Amino acid sequence: MQEHGGRLVAKVLKSRGVECLFTLSGGHLFSIYDGCKEEGIRILDVRHEQTAAFAAEGLAKATRTPGVAALTAGPGVTNGLSAIAGAQANNSPICVLGGRAPELRWGSGSLQEIDHLPFVSPLVKSAQTVKEPGQIAAMTAAALDLAAAAPSGPTFLDYPLDVVFTEAEVAIPPLPAAGEAQPAAGVEEAAALLAAAERPVVMAGSGLYWGHGEQELQALAEALGIPVFLNGLGRGCLAADHELAFSRARGTGLQGADVALVVGVPMDFRLGFGASFGEETKIVRLDVAPNKLSANRAPEVDLVGDVRASLAAIREAAGAERRSERWLEQLRGVEAERRQAEREELDDPRSPLHPVRVYRELGEVLDRDAIVIGDGGDFVSYAGRYIDTYQPGCWMDPGPFGCLGAGPGQAIGAKVAHPERQVCLLLGDGAFGFAGMEFDTMARHGLGVVGVIGNNGIWALEHHPMKFLYGYSVAAELRPETRYDELVESLGCDGVLVRHPDELRPALERAFESGRPTLVNVLTDPEVVYPRKSNLA
Question: Which of the listed residues 337, 364, 388 is the one where a domain comes to its end?
Fold first, then answer.
């Protein structure tokens, strides 16, 4: 039976398990919407195309399956570029479908006529234009399958208006057969180093999560008694309350290690470009893709292969003799000492609130499987230190690309993926300005996301360093005590203002219990300076 191109697109999406399409309405996409309606695929429209792509990424991060966004031609696609670039940096499997001016009139100056491929191509695994209706099914399936294939990442496909509205009769390609996962070459050398180590550490990140390696990592760590540090999407791959999970002792652990197994983490600014590890530390790098940051510190052993299979092979070859008990006791002492030192900030009674006080209260109301999304500078930096994560896929942030405005979209995608779970969106008041209108999206679609905004009236990540360098600050001030809670109320959500610490926990409890999209607007002290040590450049 002949069907128009949009219905072919939707049939492919359904064949790959896609249940939701994130978009902002555009005429170039109408046939795809018709196909999704026919196939029972939810269409969730947002207020900015960037958010559609971020929402696709939020779903992908929450499920480890591809998220799909449809962006209309021209400015619709260009509006999504920052989100696509963020997905590239995070290896997030998203597939972005673009509208495009008609092929038969190309070069005549149709509405929003622009060739997307030259500027999208550097950000994605593949970028193509479908030129014939008969190619729609095969090319759409290939884009989705490539996004999911390791190393995962974004793909892009656009459909000229006349092509996607034209009928064709084609079969839907089957899912590709899964190949047998193979461990990386060199696992025996890595295993020997770890087995002989007296001060081993694991530093694991997003590549561990995308590689489904959390169970094998835990088994290896338990067999050899290896302390584990996590960042990015790796957070939660070992529960925060596991005896081998450490966070506060990271500097001591990485500097003092004799062997470090670095799993799915690039040697970028987050690891001091490699200088976070001691000069004598032997580094074993494991990831599914070759090292892209060859200008930084090179590992002694570089393993490129399937993460889960490689971890299993290392554990089998290393045995189960634990040499690290003294090392673990040392790190536990550092961990306990630093947690005790934090109590003063956690219990701080000041008004406006110390940002850390927010995280004390949040920690008492969040479920173990709550999904927490961070979007901001200093306020979210504190969250990275104080929010504990207990399950994989429960922590999201912009990632190393650092694009503010990612939070509302990722929260929308996470809530679509797991409507039964708490989804908590942490926002700086600066970050709120990028995508605060998406609370309208949450209200319209009944998404009970709870937002918590740290409202200090400044761009703190810039304000305090400028004052330190120059004695003054410019372009880093916001309106003090802006009533963002009243703003979201006008969009159909609930809002509450918190000025004093004793108001916070009741506000959070009510917000999560209501099931409605809510913003808790917390006034925080602008004089608090985040103790930043890392070299971002």
Answer: 337
Specify the pTM: 0.96
Q: What is the 3-state secondary structure (H, E, C) of 404-436?
A: CCHHHHHHHHHHHHCCCCCEEEEEEHHHHHHHC
C-alpha Rg value of the chain to the nearest Å: 24
pLDDT at 286 over 70: yes
Cβ atoms of 200 and 224 within 8 Å: the answer is yes
Same domain, 204 and 279: yes
pLDDT tens digits, 472-488: 999 999 999 999 999 99
Interval 62-77: pLDDT, tens: 999 999 999 999 999 9
Q: Which two tokens stand for residue 376?
A: 């901001």
Residue 536 within any structural domain of the chain: no
- Judge whether 532 lies within some domain: no
229, 256 contact by CB (below 8 A): no
Give which of 101, 52, 98, 103 is closest to 77, Cα–Cα. 98
| Count of other CB atoms within 10 angstroms of residue 275 | 14
Over residues 407-426, the pLDDT tens digits come to 999 999 999 999 999 999 99
Which residues have C-beta within 8 Å of that of residue 200, sequence separation ≥ 6?
A: 194, 224, 226, 227, 257, 258, 259, 260, 261, 324, 327
| Token digits of residue 318 | 């290393």
- Site of tokens 């990442």: 153
Domain total in the chain: 3
